[in-house]
Amino acid sequence: MAPHRSLLHIGFPKAGSTTLQTGLFQAHPDLVSLAKPFPADDDRAHAIHQAVRFCDSAAIGPRLAGLRAELATLVDPDDRRTPVWSAEDYAVGPYWPSRQHKTADRVSIATTLAQLLPGAVVLVVVREPVSWLQSCYAQLRTGGAPLPRFRPWVDEQLDTRGAGSMLDALDLEPLVSTYDRLFGRDEVLVTAFDDLVARPEAVARRITGVLGLPPAPPGATAAGAANARRSAARTAARRLERRHPAVRRLAHRVPPPVRAAARRLADTGAGGRVDVEPTPAQRRAIGEATRPAWEWLAARRAEDGVG
Q1: Whole-structure pTM over 0.85, yes or no?
Q2: What are phi and psi of 65, to 5 degrees?
Q3: How many CB atoms lie within 10 A of CB 186?
Q4: What pLDDT score was predicted for residue 58?
Q5: N or C: which end of the chain has fewer CB within 10 A?
Q6: What contacts 24+ positions apart, CB below 8 Å, involve 197-202?
Q7: Which H or E run contains 237?
């Protein structure tokens, strides 16, 4: 991948990843996704993604040469477009619950990515803490995670702050500083989910500008699919497709209108709605817990000239 300058999108989850993956990353003529649209949708990319996510930097060392070779097979050497590697859970690291393996810490993930994608431009998208927790909880709950109701779960996150809470993932300064150190301060873009929603064209111009690419064509920033709250049935079906190539190939033979109708039916079934409303006291507590991170983000945006 040496001739190519890559774009590395590391998340956060539930912060516009689908909008980017099915919009800008697919539609811009000078970008090419290494896996379309998600790493888990390509078996080779999925293996690389799993290695990055679940192996610490020491354990992955002996595998780096093989992973680099595998990554090179995803890129056509004659294709001069900018490769995009997008995996939203790198930013959250071990703070996202996983029932498979213990997720590597975020420094290990960043270190491995720096060795696999040297010289990449890094994109980090963050989301306002209350709405981020709401969206994360809905995804985890509909995905079958054994969680209590939302308000007791929020209390758990507040009580375990500093000891593995999902709120710890929003400690932005050490996360971004790690990528600054490994990739270079000017190569790390931090943007807000609200900007992506309200000013998608401006966000896209900032990304393509750092990459040295022309602006995205009109409409390229619109998502091709909405990542709405999925029912447990729909989430289970997606997980099955990801883990089993034969199932995935079979599902892709189903006409798109039929697939869309099945998803709508699944989303209206039992479990398709999750109550995610915190109390006013919880909103205040979340705001207090994450205020240093958001003050840091405001300062970073000011440095970067982002309003």
Answers
A1: no
A2: -60, -45
A3: 10
A4: 79
A5: C
A6: 197/16, 200/19, 200/23
A7: helix 232-243
Is the pLDDT at 246 greater than 80, yes or no? Answer: no
Q: What is the distance, to the nearest Å, from the Cα of residue 163 to the centroid of all Cα atoms in its chain?
A: 23
Phi-psi region of 119 (alpha: psi -120 to 50; beta: other; left: phi over 0): left
Residue 145 pLDDT exceeds 90: no
DSSP three-state, residue 31: strand
Nearest Cα neighbor of 14 from 98, 93, 131 is: 131
- Rounded to a whole number, what is the distance in angstroms from the first to the last CA of the chain? 35
What letter would DSSP give residue 33?
E
Token readout for 229 is: 């709250």
Cα distance between residue 161 and residue 28, in whole Å: 40
What stretch(es) of the chain map to CATH 3.40.50.300? Answer: 7-226+280-303
Cα-flanking dihedrals φ and ψ of residue 301, to 5°?
A: -65, -40
Residue 161's Cβ-side half-sphere holds a number of Cα atoms within 13 Å equal to: 13
Q: Give dist(CA 105, CA 194) in Å, integer.
A: 27
Cα dihedral sign for 130, 131, 137, 138?
A: positive
3-state per-residue secondary structure call for 47-101: HHHHHHHHCCHHHHHHHHHHHHHHHHCCCCCCCCCEEEEECHHHCCHHHCCCCCC
What DSSP state is assigned to residue 243?
A: H
- Domain 7-226+280-303 fold is Rossmann fold (3.40.50)
Tokens of 33: 């996704």
Residue range 166-188: average pLDDT? 96
Contacts of 144 (CB under 8 A, 6+ apart): 232, 235, 236
Give dist(CA 141, CA 132) in Å, integer.
14
Distance CA 223, CA 22 (A): 5
Q: What is the pLDDT of residues 91-125, one digit of tens each?
A: 999 998 765 556 789 999 999 999 999 999 999 99
Say if residue 76's pLDDT is above 70. yes
